[in-house]
Design goal:
By secondary structure, the chain is of the alpha+beta class. The protein has helices at 18-31, 73-83, 112-120; strands at residues 6-13, 35-53, 56-69, 88-95. The protein has one domain (6-95): 2-Layer Sandwich (Alpha-Beta Plaits). Strands 2-3-1-4 form a four-stranded antiparallel beta sheet, with helices on one face. The relative contact order is 0.27. Pfam families: Ribosomal_S6.
Length: 121
């Protein structure tokens, strides 16, 4: 069984092409071996500062968050791929902090006969 790390992928988009960009981005993630768990729209907001990207200045953008599971190699390829996309203003991958969970093997039966013998000695 192969387990991939969990990532949160955050990016800012321009408003007019939102649906097309989301579709392109999710398809690109899946082509590179990612499993998309959740897509969350955080809404359109004014940016904290003016951002210049692809020879344009932007003041507003749509914030999106994708919860995904994928190989570590996906980070650099997607950052490069979306860096060339004119509809993406900013992008960032954040590794999901996951606590390791151990499987419970159930109740281990106690051998009472061994306990009695150990007490008699």
């Amino acid at each position: 069984c192969v387990y991939f790390p969990l990532y949160l992928f955050f990016f800012l988009l321009l408003k007019p092409e939102t649906a097309a960009v989301l579709k392109r981005t999710v398809e690109a993630l899946m082509e590179r071996g990612a499993i998309v768990r959740n897509l969350e729209n955080l809404g359109e907001r004014s940016l904290p500062y003016k951002i210049s990207k692809h020879k344009e200045r932007h003041r507003r953008g749509g914030y999106f968050l994708i919860d995904l599971e994928g190989p570590p190699s996906i980070v650099s390829t997607m950052m490069d791929h979306l860096g060339r996309d004119v509809d993406v203003i900013r992008r960032a991958f954040i590794k999901h902090p996951v606590s390791k969970t151990e499987e419970c093997s159930g109740i281990i039966p106690v051998d009472y006969e061994d306990k009695l013998i150990a007490k008699k000695k």
